Amino acid sequence: MKKFFAMAAMLLSLTAASAQEQKEELKAPLSETDNNFQLAVQLSRYGYANKSVLSLVEAAKIVKANGFTQGTRSVDEGRTEAPATDQKQGQISLDAAKLLADAKELAGKDKTLLAVIKAAEEDAATRGAVGGPKYDVDNVSAYSSVTYRVNFRAGELAQVMVIGDGDTDLDLYVYDENSNLIASDTDYTDRCICQWYPRWTGTFRIVIRNRGRVYNHYVFRTN
């Protein structure tokens, strides 16, 4: 019997050693870029839901100023196309050109609003770090999940973020290449952030799970 318990203890020790990182709560402060990204998403979502021209313009200005760049890195499980007749209010875009085009359509013939949009269109070219932060905008089906596979470097803060359209609860899980759960955010909102420090450079599997009965239009971002 003692041998059995000794063997079990050794196996548990080996399993822990093969994990990228122990599941410790990590609360590194969000950077200014992180906060700007969240603000742009919120303004975009509010602008579409409330037909607010100025909100869409401000979202576009933040996107341009921070150099947010879209990058598709997902596995196609759980993705869903929005219906052609979709009336969902929780629309989100972080495409500056689209935000300004949609703002212009909402503005109609209002000369004051059109002048604001024109000024935003003529603003300086996208600034920020080379390549900029990477994000993806997509849909996850009801009671389903979408999986991303992303490489992170050893010893550097790794961070993933998801912000949904507000219609359902989303949960976020991070697994290493050995299928160990590294981090998770499973509260009752659709705003999730996971942070960790990889022990070695490798590929991580990030799973966004939709707990609701309608699809969720979300934004996913890596640092």
Question: What is the helix/strand order?
Answer: HHHEEHHEEEEEEEE
Number of helices: 5
Instruction: Give the spatial strand order of the biggest sheet.
Output: 1-3-10-5-8
Q: What's the alpha carbon Rg, rounded to whole Å? A: 20 Å
Category by helix and strand content: alpha+beta
Please give the largest β-sheet: 5 strands, mixed
In percent, how much strand structure appears in the residues?
A: 25-35%
Helix content: 25-40%
Provide the residue-averaged pLDDT.
80
- As residue ranges, the low-confidence spans are 10-16, 125-132
Question: Based on CA inertia axes, which overall geometry fits?
Answer: globular
For the secondary structure, the number of strands is 10
| First-to-last CA distance | 49 Å
Produce the secondary structure layout.
Layout: H1 2-17, H2 32-50, H3 53-66, E1 69-70, E2 74-75, H4 96-107, H5 111-121, E3 134-140, E4 145-152, E5 158-163, E6 170-175, E7 181-185, E8 191-196, E9 202-210, E10 216-222
Parallel strand pairs: 1-3
Antiparallel strand pairs: 2-4, 3-10, 4-9, 5-8, 5-10, 6-7, 6-9
Your description of this structure?
The model is unreliable at 10-16 and 125-132 (pLDDT under 50). A hairpin with a 5-residue loop joins strand 6 (170-175) and strand 7. The protein is α+β, with helices and mostly antiparallel strands and 223 residues long. The protein contains 5 helices and 10 strands, in the order αααββααββββββββ. It has helices at 2-17, 32-50, 53-66, 96-107, 111-121; strands at residues 69-70, 74-75, 134-140, 145-152, 158-163, 170-175, 181-185, 191-196, 202-210, 216-222. The radius of gyration is 20 Å and the shape is globular. Strands 1-3-10-5-8 form a 5-stranded mixed beta sheet, with no helix packed on it. A 5-stranded antiparallel beta sheet has the order 2-4-9-6-7, with no helix packed on it.
